[in-house]
Amino acid sequence: MHRFTRLFIDLDATTRTSEKLTALENYFRSVPPEDGVWALTLLVGKRPRRAISHTEMRRIASERSGIPLWLIAECHDAAGDLSETLALILPESDRCSLRPLHRVFSEWLTPLRNADEPSRALLLNEAWDELDTRQRLVFHKLISGSFRVGVQRRLVVRALANITALDPAIIEHRLNAPWKPTPDDYRRILSPHEHDSDPAAPYPFFLATPIRPSANDPITDDLRWLEHHLADPSDWLAEWKWDGIRAQLIHRPSLTMLWSRGEEHITDAFPELRALGALLPDNTVLDGEIVAWSDQDRPLPFSDLQRRLNRKQRDLMLFDDIPIRFLAYDLLELEGRDLREAPTADRRARLQNICARLASEQHLGVSPTIDFASWEDLAEQRAASRARAVEGIMLKRKSAPYRSGRARGDWWKWKIDPYTIDAVLIYAQRGSGRRASLFTDYTFALWDNGELVPFTKAYSGLSDAEIREVDDFIRKHTTGRQGPIRMVEPRLVFEIGFEGLRESDRHRAGIALRFPRMLRRRTDKSPDQADTLETLRALLHHSRTD
DNA sequence: AATAAGTGACC
DNA sequence: GTTGTGT
DNA sequence: ACACAACGGTCACTTATT
Known about the structure:
This protein is of the alpha+beta class.
C-alpha cells in the first residue's frame, strides 16, 4: 500500500509525461506480481465498484472524529472531494502501512463489500488505525468506487513496454485479451516472449481525427482545408460515417467474437453476427460498424441499437424489433495473415472479394465507398448525410497502413455541421477537480409561453478566460440556491451546438440533445432574443422528416 | 414493492 | 462523443 | 502532436432509500 500510495501521489503531482512514465516504471519494477497486477487493474482496467456508500463512510468518520455531519458536509463542499476530506479530518496518525496492495483487496475491500453494517464500521476503523493520511486518501477512493488517476492506458502500456523491452503494440494486444488480477495473468502480460499473445484479443483500433480540429487553424473553410491538407482527392477513399458501434469481428476456428472499441466482449448482444463467423475463412478479422438497420434499408437511430447492448435477459433480444447489420470497412487479418501493414486500398479490395460471396447475407455488408471527382463534389454529397441518417463522411488515405489509436494524418472524419440554437444560462454548478472552485457547469433554457424552460446542460466550449468571466457574473447575479445549484439571473446568451435531438421524458422540455456544447457567447443578443422551445420542436420535427 | 440514485457501457 | 490546456 | 481532464446524453442494470 505504501508503494502504491507513493505512485498515486507521484502521478497526481505532475502533468509531465516523462515524470509519470518514470514513476510507473519504478513502481512496476519494484513490486511483486501479486501487487503489480492489482495496480495494473486500477490503472488500465476497471476501477473497483464501490464497497461502501458515501453516506455511510461519512457517518463512521463522524463517529470516529467527533466532527458533526454538517461540518463534514461543509468541508466536503470546500475541498470538493470526499475521500480527501475524510482523510484530512480523521485524527492524525503517523503510522505507515506496509500491507501489500493485494492484501488490501483480499482483507479489506472484498470483506467490506460483503459485510453487514456493524462489521463495515469495524473494518473501516481497523484500516484507519493502520493507514497514514495519504494512504487513507487512496484507500477511500478505492472503497468508494471513485478511484481515478491521471494516467491513461497508453502511458501505462509504454511503461510496461520499456520494462519488458517489448513493442508497446504487443503489450496493448495482450491487455486487450481478457485477464484477471492474478499473478499468472500478470506474468503472461509481461512475458518477454513476443508470441505469448491471445488470439482472441482484438487489434488496437485505428481512430479517425476530426478535420480542422484546432481552433487556431488559419483556414476556416472546409474545402480549403481539404485542398490544403489532403491535396489530391484521388489519393483518398471516402465512406459514410455510420452512427453505430465500432467493432471487430474475429473469426478463429470454432470461435467467433465481437469486440467493441472499449475492448468489451459484446458477442452475446449480437448472436446474428456471431453466426456470420462460420461463413468467413478461419482466422479472419474484420473492422466495421454495427448499425441498427430498418427494413427500409437505412440506419435506425443509435438509441435503438443501444437497447441491444448490456442486456441480461437473453429471451428478449429484440432480434425482430431492432434488426442489425455489420458494415465492414476493413480487413485486418485474413487466413492468419496480419494485413495491417498493407495499403488501405489493398485491404479494401480483399475485403470486397470476401464479402462479394456473401452478398445475400442480410446481416453483413461492406460499407460502400463514395465516388467523388473533387472535394466540391464530395461536399455536395455530404450535404445529404442527414437524409441518409449518417453522421458525415470518413476519409482514408489509400496508401496508408492500419495504424493504432488516434494517429493523425491517414484517417479523418468530416462530420455534418452541428445544429445550433441560442439559449439563456439559468443555473450553474461548481465543477470538480481542476475546476472545483469555479462555476463551470451550466444549464440552459429556451423561451416557452413567456417562461424560460431548461433543456440542456453544457460544459465544454469555453476557454479558461471565458469561464472566469462567466463565473464572475454568476457570483454577482445569483438569485437563489437549491443544494449545490445556483439560480442565475437570466442575462447571458450562448449559442449551443449539438449533433442531433430526440424526444425525451427525462427533461421538462421533452427534448434531449446529443453532444451539446457551447459554440460561443452571444454578447450581441439580449435574453429576450434567445430562441424558443418551439424552434427546437421544429428542428426535431425537421430532423425526422428530412 | 416502488422509486431514486448510482454505475458502466456506447456515442 | 466534444472541447480546452499543458508539455 | 499528444495525452489528459472535464464534461454532454442514452440505455440496461444494480444498489440504496422510501
